[in-house]
Please model this.
Amino acid sequence: MSALPLLEVDDLRVTFNTASGPVHAVDGVSFTMEPGASLGVVGESGSGKSVTARALLRLFAITDDVRVAGSVHFDGVDLLRVDERRLRHVRGGQIGMIFQDPLTSLNPLMAVGEQIAESLRLHRGMGRAEAASEAVELLARVGIADPEKRATELPSSFSGGMRQRVMISLAIACRPRLLIADEPTTALDVTVQAEILLLLDELRRSEGMALMLITHDFGVVAATCEDVQVMYAGKLVEKASMAHLFDRANHPYTEGLLRLVPRFEDAHTGRLHPIPGQPPITGGGGSSCAFAPRCDHAFDRCRAEVPPEVAVGPEHLSACWLAAERARDTIEAGRPWKRDR
Amino acid sequence: MNGAAVVGTVSETGAPSADDPRRGVLEVNDVVVEFDTDGGRITAVDGVSLHLATGETLGLVGESGCGKSTLARAIMQLVPMQRGSVRLEDTDLGTLPRRELRRMRHRIQMVFQDPRGSLDPRMSVSTLIGEPLRVHSIGDRTSRARAVAEAMELVGLPTAVADRLPSELSGGQQQRVGIARAIVTDPAVLVCDEPVSALDVSIQAQIINVLDELRDELDLAMLFIAHDLSVVRHLSDRVAVMYLGQIVETGTASEVFSEPRHPYTQGLITSVPRADAASAARLQTARRLVLGELPSLLDPPSGCRYRTRCPYADDECAATEPPPEAVDHADGLHSLRCHHWRDIAARSEAQPSSNSQEQAQ
Model:
């Protein structure tokens, strides 16, 4: 690892005050991303993966009663402590974002070329003509045929996949150093999804930007990301390289997620294995392992103490008491990383 | 090319005769559905035939706009057909007078994508599940209550939720109510249109298991429509792949998914992102198998519908529409519409890859 991370998130906590009490949506999350890195964030709905991404840029609704704590250093500056004006410059400038539904982020009444050009004028200080021609370039860059003509059209005249491409061209217009993609392909057909995932991967490599991809689908992570972290109840429960995680998932929640969905390549006999129960609606904040009530392997300690992050392999962390006890055993036996399964 | 071209057992060539053991509880023959849109008239379903036997699941896959949901609605007689017939247990639904069609409806029921949107928010769970019985005047009060309780048990709804409103249920429970409503009338056929795609992953697995168990326990014939190929493969005995209103390939799920013959099916399957080390490389292959964008139904390609996106297309594909052709080995169930599938199969055999589904160009 190089000395200067691009993004350094330390003990991030996001608490929403709701009518029924506090919800600890993000509960002490720490991670770093190097320049050009690719990180997949995986979890069920309500695991805190999207809130984590929104918290990086303090993107909350005005109606949200929210408290954010910890620090988010981007390029050495703590985004949680800069003023709103500075933050606006970072949003859509150094950090680009795309979401599941591009329609919510595009202005329905403005030609797509104009929207991109507006961003270029704002963030890159381009003149009108230069911005307009750069917008066409960007549309071509994300694989939109006949970009001069399409630049003059409204978002509604694009198909779902093409609209997501427009959204990506807008997100990369200001050459961000980090692109956050929140379920960018969930609403798309599988062939279109393949195109968008390849496009994100190519852009990351050619533009040298880092990619944080939020999804519930390990297949999507495998196609685009080198690293992966799994979230549950506002906490990171496992971090690893994707290549390492395929056959060495450690945390029972990760194992559950991997077994939950039918894998296309498997023999299709027997029933699926849903994880029993549901994630806690209040998020984290407890004094035990939040996954213990749903975990087949839980023992007394899991219900009494929050598990620490334990190294279970090279650059592989798991927040699980079972892993902690195994790691202690293997270290005592003098053979780290080689645990029996 | 092999001389044995069109084989008679292919469903598209006509329904099996009355003494055929494979004769289905549902026989869909040459259905055409046309719509008027702002841009002109389109053929959403273009001559589709399929059959379903008791206890069998047929998966219907294809991209948005391929006509799979329209076909489902045509089978349910919810949209008019321009041509073709739908026979349910030997009754031709298309020619039935309205009243008699209503009477037949309890034998074919549908499960929808959005459980919340399809449930009346003011009705309790037990009222919702009993509603189809009252509408069809099936049984008396006591037998209806018994049927509702049975349906709730079959879909795994605890009796404690019987008096709750849909808004008090989780998404998974709402979909269980949707399924209970569909099975309470003791249907022969269940049509499921994207029944799990609106649900969170962990809930999806539960609902898939419910459908799987019901099919076995009630001996249902199930038409399962979904865009998630892994889910379809898991649940289906046979599959049909639709493209621009036509079935381009059909066969047993294991055949079609492990040895796809149509270039479109190959592209679809290769596009599924899998959690393994070859994931990105596989998507690169997929990109070479499915070129460009879906053409508009307002101006469908001449000849083969897929030719504008197919890496193997030539003049013959533009000139003539490939008829359904059976793959000669196996059980006669596997058929497809492609002029060049034999050449394509031979070519990919000459270039072996680590995986039979990795048929690069």
Observations:
- The two ends of chain B are 19 Å apart (CA to CA).
- The domain at 98-187 of chain B is CATH 3.40.50.300 (Rossmann fold).
